[in-house]
Amino acid sequence: MKFLAITVLSIALIQFLLSRRVTIFEYERGLKYHKGQFVKILEPGKYILYSPNVTVQKVDMRSRMTSITGQEVLSSDGVTVKVTLSAEYEIVDPYLAINKVENYMQTLYTMIQLVLREIIGELDIEAVLSSRKQINDALNEQAYEKALEFGVKINSVGVKDMMFPADIKRIFSQVVQARKEGLAKLEKTRAETAALRNLANVSKVLESNPSILKLRLLESTGNTLVVGLPEQFGELGKK
User: Fold this and answer.
1) How many CB atoms are located within 10 Å of the residue 85 CB?
2) Is the pTM of this model over 0.85?
3) Cα separation of 170 and 202, whole Å?
4) What is the gyration radius of the CA atoms in the chain, in angstroms?
5) What is the pLDDT of residues 52-76, one digit of tens each?
6) What are the tens digits of pLDDT across the range 89-125?
7) What burial class does residue 237 get, using C-beta atoms within 10 Å of its C-beta: 0-12 exposed, 13-18 middle, 19+ buried?
8) Among positive and negative, which fits the CA dihedral 132, 134, 136, 138?
9) 3-class state of residue 149 by DSSP
């Protein structure tokens, strides 16, 4: 009996000496494994691991920002566009993020790139330029669901910058300049049309009232117009 007690105490002492203390901070979660098999998720707190067969992997749960740079994608009409994306994400299921994929960050990057290729691949280059908000909305919708499959929540993802080949930039500049010149000519034509319309209206008025033209001529030369009075008014003046 004494020998058994000594044995138990010895084992307890060995376990205590081999024990490890683990602290899970507020922004972390711990994945506890026993002999390589997942046991449970540890919440923030202090833990003592008595068995050498038990390991804990910490996972940072804080939201983080990242840039996905230099992604060359093709529009539906074959124009290459280099797109830089920015994304904010966080881990919501540490078990899936660590155990389902080899590297959740790399998986996230690759998935967003593929979604971007699919979206822009269905648009021509003019639509790509004019539909930035729609592209961002589609990115958020499609990438969000895919990321949840491996325990990551995308808070936002969108196009940060777009770069085009030099020849495409030159063509776009010419198109913009042509549009500006066309608008200027259109405004000039509208003004000339309005002026002609006014002249036509004046011509109609003068045609039906020729005396207006005489009055206008007298006004412009500064002459005094004397209007004759009826005879009865003249006789009243003599009296």
Assistant:
1) 22
2) no
3) 48
4) 42
5) 889 999 999 999 999 988 788 988 8
6) 999 999 999 999 999 999 999 999 999 999 999 998 8
7) exposed
8) negative
9) coil
